[in-house]
Amino acid sequence: MKLKSFPTLQVLAAAIAAYEHNKKSIIRNASTIDNIVYHPNRHLISESVQFSSTFDSTFIVNDFHREQAEGIVQYIEQNVIMQSLRGTPDRFLAQIGAILATQEVSVKDFGIVAWAPHLVDQYQQKDHVRELSARHERSSRYTGRIGETVTIEFSLIEKRYVQSTDCYAVYGVTDHDNLIFYWAKNLDKICEAGRIKGRVKAHNEDGYRNKAKVTVLNYVKVL
C-alpha cells in the first residue's frame, strides 16, 4: 500500500510550528510539564497536515511558518552544497536536505522533517559563534604569563557541554579583545558577562580558529 504524500512546504511549516509549540524542542513521547501536556512533534505535524486540525487547539500553523519553511529549505540546501565542496556533508543534514528537495513528503518521513527547524537552529548558533569569534581572531593576544593569576572582564562567546569530560567548554573574550578558554564543571562557573579570576594554564594557537591566540585558564572563579 502506497503511503500518502503531502506538499513539502506544508509539512515543513507544520514542523516549524510544532517545534515552536514545544518550546523549541523535539518531543518524542507525550509528556506533562507544569500541568501542560506536550505532544510529539511528529503527531502534531501529522494531524495538522492530514486533517487540517489537531487534538491540541492551541497549536496553529500560520503564514509566518510557511514563509520560514521556504527559508529553511534554502538554508539547508546551501549548507549541503558548502559541505559537499569541502568533502562529505553531515549525513543527517544531507538526509533532510534530500527530503526537502522533493515536491512532496511521505507520511513516513514526517519524523525526520520534524528535526529540520532544530537542526537549522544548531547550525545558525554555530554560524553566530564563528561570526563573533572571527571579530577577535586577528587582534587576540595572550593574556598574562603562564602560572600567573589574572582578573579580567569577560564576555561569553560560546558554552558547550562535552559529555566525555562531563564539563562545559567555555569560550569568550576579554574587554581587550583577547580570546579566553576554560573548563567549567557547573553552570554557576560560567560567566556570561562580568569579571572572572583564574590562573593562566597555557597559551595556544587555535588551529580551528585561524591560529588565533587563545589563553587557557584554570581554577576560574566568577567574581
Summed up, the helix count is 6
Order of helices and strands: EHEEHHHEHHEEEEE
The computed structural class is: alpha+beta
Number of domains: 2
Please provide the count of β strands.
9
What distance lies between the first and last C-alpha atoms, to the nearest angstrom? 65 Å
The residue ranges in which pLDDT falls below 50 over 5 or more consecutive positions are none
Helix content: 25-40%
Mean pLDDT: 90
* Radius of gyration, taken over Cα atoms and rounded to an integer in Å: 22 Å
Tell me what portion of residues adopts beta-strand conformation: 25-35%
Bulk shape: elongated
Largest sheet: 5 strands, mixed, barrel
**Could you give the order of strands across the largest sheet?**
5-6-7-9-8
What does this structure look like?
A 5-stranded mixed β-barrel has the order 5-6-7-9-8. It has a two-stranded antiparallel ribbon with strand order 1-4. The protein folds into 2 domains: 125 residues, no CATH class; 82 residues, Nucleic acid-binding proteins (OB fold (Dihydrolipoamide Acetyltransferase, E2P)). Helix 1 crosses helix 2, helix 1 crosses helix 3 and helix 3 packs across helix 4. It contains 6 helices and 9 strands; from the N terminus they run E-H-E-E-H-H-H-E-H-H-E-E-E-E-E. With 223 residues, the chain is of the alpha+beta class.
